[in-house]
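B., you asked whether I could sanity-check this one before it goes into the benchmark set. Here's the sequence:
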Amino acid sequence: MTESEVRGDADYGYVRLLGAPWEGLRQRPQQLMIQLARYHKVLYVDPPRRVPRLLPLRRVGGNLWALHPWAPSALLGRPRSRAGNHVLAYIVRLGMKLVGIESPVVWHSEYESWPFIGRLGERLNLYDCCDDFVSLAADPERAAQEEGEMLGRADGTIVTSESLLEQKRSRARRILLAPNAADAETFRPSPHLSRPHDLDGVVRPIIGFVGAFNDWVDTELVGELARSRRDWSFVVVGPIGAEVTGLRHHENVYFLGRKDYENLPAYYAHIDVGIVPFRVSDFTKCIDPIKVYEFLAMGKPVVATDLPEMRKFGDLILTARFAREFEERIEEALRTSETVQARRIAWGLENSWSHRAAQIERFIVGAMEG
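And here's what the prediction gave me:
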């Protein structure tokens, strides 16, 4: 990303509100704020916590600060109370003052932050809709109403998938399709990536899942594959949010837990085939998994559930609809050619977070100019 592409009017800063905490898994919000902080001041605001931190505001990069607000338990909850929003807005304004941000672009990572529109002296509000969280809400009707407020009030909406674009475009004032991407500087092939110690004794081929192993992962499918192919090792690298008691009974299934971000490339390097075995649901039909981009940037073959957003990758990945087809596609992926591997790596470089941030910055500048 060139300086002229991302800088725009460098006098403005960004305030990114709520959603994924800074210290959580490195996801889209952190990746984009890191890129935008190259030329703008950025205040990354975590969801409020019940226990105060010793350092509620800290610098995590040159132009990038993380704010960890605290609020009494009575003011928290979902949806947040009017009093809770008032307290949080005050804390954010204080954080802005301390880091020297005025008239920011406010980046909303969740639709529930729409009550903050107009409270931070902002010049622009942006809604980054990266998943169909309305479909997961306990009260979908209320969630749809709240997202409608965000779509109607935000100056611009960004979506990560064609499916989300079709859902939101009629209600958004201005909309951009900006899919996820890869950290091409971190996820690149290297002969110097040593085999992690917790892979010692894990026989190859290694079939790997990297990321949060949540309820939308098809654990029954993974179990069928593990039973059918006892000569393959199935490795999960990341936190577990799904019920996996049954999977733990398989001797060829390994749960390695969450790893530090800088150590992930070594795991990618020693996985033979990456898998994205998601269930088919309203939520997953809109999903654009970052792990696919990272596997491709590392030159690795991927087999994924046949979902709408997987089709844009063309022949760079393989898709399957059921367990037997998954097994066949993995066998095919294990025979991948060096030519296809080189094309995957090139695609990963073309779809980096720096390129995506430049695309979004142009959209923002256009929205400012009216």
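One thing to flag: Residues 182 and 352 are 5 Å apart (CA to CA). Otherwise nothing jumped out at me.
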